[in-house]
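Quick one, T. Sequence first:
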Amino acid sequence: MSVEKQQNNTDKRLENLKPRWKKGESGNPNGRPKGVQSIPDILRKIGDEEGTVDGLNKLEVVLRKVFGFAVEGKSWAVQFIADRTEGRSVERIQTQEVKDELIIE
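Structure tokens:
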């Protein structure tokens, strides 16, 4: 690749790093429209509704079902319960850069 092409590619990459708006200016000036709920808000609202004649809310009914699956040995249900009671374990990923050299004799 020629030096001119490399410089052109570098210029394009640097251009992509520049923000699209000026300092102090929001990238989303209007924000989320008023009255629009997020998915977690809607799910919490539905979960608080009555779910059965036992007086349990829908969230309790679902969690009892998940617990039943865990007792049956479903690994995803066991993992789900463990993640929410014990907390998720921290995953550590170690990376190493390897440079290959081509030696032509």
